[in-house]
């Protein structure tokens, strides 16, 4: 089940990058939730009690905010997505898409965050 982002949310972001690694290699890094802080300095204390799969919960801190997330999509080597809740009842949807290319992988990520606090801090959240 792929949960779509809300294009009208107060905070919407997407990024794309080409990397020199096969999707299988990147997938292994992306789905090793307990080690996210190894490659993203904003993330602290990411942990899950189970192997990542649809329906699995995990918790983590991003830039100091505690987030409880649940995986909604787990399509091996192709797509990972989760929904999460954070401060002030903020709701986030985050999706990663991996596409094989000749010399590696095109990685596209998209995220939306909404909630009353996010609406108040709209400019800072972008």
Pattern of helices and strands: EHEEEEEEHH
| Shape category | globular
Intertermini distance: 27 Å
Number of strands: 7
Mean pLDDT over the full residue set: 87
Fraction of residues in helices?
10-25%
Low-confidence runs? none
CATH superfamily: START domain
CATH class categorisation: Alpha Beta
Largest sheet: 7 strands, antiparallel
> How many structural domains does the protein architecture include?
1
Give the second-level CATH assignment, the architecture: 2-Layer Sandwich
> Strand share of the residues?
over 45%
The order of strands across the largest sheet is 1-7-6-5-4-3-2
- What structural class do the secondary elements suggest? mainly beta
List keywords for this structure.
13% helix; Alpha-D-Glucose-1,6-Bisphosphate, Chain A, domain 4; 7 strands; 126 residues; single chain; mainly beta; 3 helices; globular; seven-stranded antiparallel beta sheet
């Amino acid at each position: 089940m792929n949960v779509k982002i809300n294009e009208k949310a107060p905070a919407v972001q997407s990024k794309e990058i080409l990397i020199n690694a096969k999707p299988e290699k990147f997938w292994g890094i992306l789905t090793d939730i307990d080690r996210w802080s190894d490659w993203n300095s904003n993330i602290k204390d990411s942990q899950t009690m189970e192997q990542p799969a649809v329906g699995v919960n995990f918790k983590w801190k991003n830039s100091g905010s505690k987030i409880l997330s649940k995986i909604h999509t787990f399509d091996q080597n192709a797509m990972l997505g989760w929904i999460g809740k954070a401060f002030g009842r903020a709701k986030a949807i985050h999706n990663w898409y991996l596409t094989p290319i000749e010399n590696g992988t095109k990685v596209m990520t998209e995220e939306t965050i909404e909630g009353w606090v996010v609406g108040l801090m709209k400019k800072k959240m972008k």
